[in-house]
# Entry
Amino acid sequence: FALTGQRWDKEQLSFSILDQRIPPSLGLNRTSNAIRRAFGVWSSVTPLSFQERPAGGAVDILLLFASGFHGDMSLFDGEGGSLAHAFYPGPGTGGDTHFDADEPWTLDAQNQEGIDLFLVAVHELGHALGLEHSENPAAIMAPFYQWSNAQNFSLHGDDIAGVQRMYGPPVASDAPPTHHDDITTTPPSTSSSPTHSTPGPPDPTQTEPDPTPTPPLATPTSHLTSPITARTGPDPVTPAVRRDAPPSICDGDFDTLTLLRGEMFVFKGRWFWRVRRNRVLENYPMPISVFWNGLPDDIDAAYERHDGKFVFFKGDRFWLFREADVLPGYPQPLHQYGRGIPAHRIDAAIWWEPNEFTYFFSGDRYWRYNEETRSTDRDFPKPISRWGKIPASPRGAFLSEDGASTYFYKGSSYWRFDNRRTEADRGYPRSILKDFMGCVGAPEPDPDPDPDPETERNPGTEPGRPPQPTEPGRGPDRELRPGSTEDDPDQEVNMVVTVVDSESKVMTLVMVTAPLLLILCILVLVYAILRTLQNKEPPRALVHCKRSLQDWV
Amino acid sequence: SAETPDEENFNPEEWLRRFGYLSRSGLQMSGPLSVQILSRAVSDMQRVYGLDPTGRLDGATLAAMRRPRCALPDRTPEAGEVRTRR
# Structure
């Protein structure tokens, strides 16, 4: 056996069984009885007792049937794959146990074709009490399903040793244990007849994604089709199947794109691409769930944090991944990511290397976020127009390889911002499909026309306002002049352009003339040395020596 | 098409990743896995499943992989060092 290091710190645990999606072949009563029996198996070898409560209240262990991605970290994959999963002990979702509604559940002890719900429930409740998978293939905590006689079921010694390592033996160990001894049942107050719990015929609308995020462990939802059920699913004409066809990257309209470990990742629906040097890598697009298991479809934004972790945003929730593994406890509400960030949605996020701050974009505003203090800076949000003429709600932001430029993406277009000059580059937007995805023939968007001809001729000048010094490389939010307001962000940008332009001209002049003067000085010096050597006579001592030698010879 | 357990699309490597026998971060790598890494993961899986740990993806091993099972991984993700941006 193996332990997770987590255990319940009390001996009386409550549970409830949700009656949605109960297998119609079993019905609510038989299903509930099987689960109660499974609880009884564990209570018979431990001091634990379990009390059933009506669904809807706060309980320690919630049991439900679901299919596909159902609001937690795991996917169900239809018949024949993953049967169930359970959370380990802990507050919140600890102990909750989910069964895949698509499996051929049975409680017929003689039928070895189906999947016996009782046996699986015993296994999952082992997880709910703190057991990991066992390496003993004969144990009920072995990871795979194996039929055994459910009527005369008894735990393997390995399972008993594991659970008793955590909780000890039962208190009244001298009494012969029975399966139902330690289970008390409070009848559910809500009507839960098998008729109500029996799912109706497949509803094509159920397969459409729900735009509103559901909290973890809310009513199980079957609308998000897993990649596995997508290929093996029973109904090939539902909209979900059409949606499952891999899209073409040249269609654009991505949910978001970001750089992770220096490579571009493009997300759309339930798919993502990896793009390297203007080319999509082989075997892409790939379903998001293959790599980031537990991440939902249609994500809003993603970025690589300064500590190397990946952060994904969707609606008012966020996920934290270490490489491909979600960290425990996620998703969490957006407001828990840090103080002051937009709590309803994030359109784009970027860790901005030049000043080592993180920027969040939402609507027509942006926030500067300090990862150390986990809070946004004061004076934020600010208008997004400080980054140039990028549209509201950009769907991606990323840095160039050398960190000199920031790119913003939306639709099929991208905009470039010069980080050194802290101004938006001209000639944008351009087609991201053409320049980054290698889509030949993608139409080029019209660059934004400059509405002010005066500005076009003399960019950055603003009559009546003197230029102010800037702090290059500190981000566009640093160019706010004292006394200026948030109401005229474009004027702020123009002012920055004026200062940077005049400074750059002086710098260019100095950089051209200084080397020329240096070269001229060197030439003059060389000429002077040559002239001096030509005019100079041999040293007197040498002449004398030469004469004396001649005499001597 | 790596994660489907049906006959046509079954991918043992993805199965090993999914249930913790191979690091999921390995998907970041472009090249194929080394024989040693794959063999070690298969041996690990065979041991848990009560098979002879040969490290070879033989028929019995593939059949075991296709068996219905619990969705929780058998091995927790490695808690090794993660490369940072710089």
Residues 35 and 85 of chain B are 29 Å apart (CA to CA). Chain B touches chain A at residues 1-6, 9, 14, 18-19, 23-25, 27-28, 30, 47-50, 64, 66-72, 74, 77, 82-85 (CB under 8 Å). Chain B is about 35% helix and 0% strand.
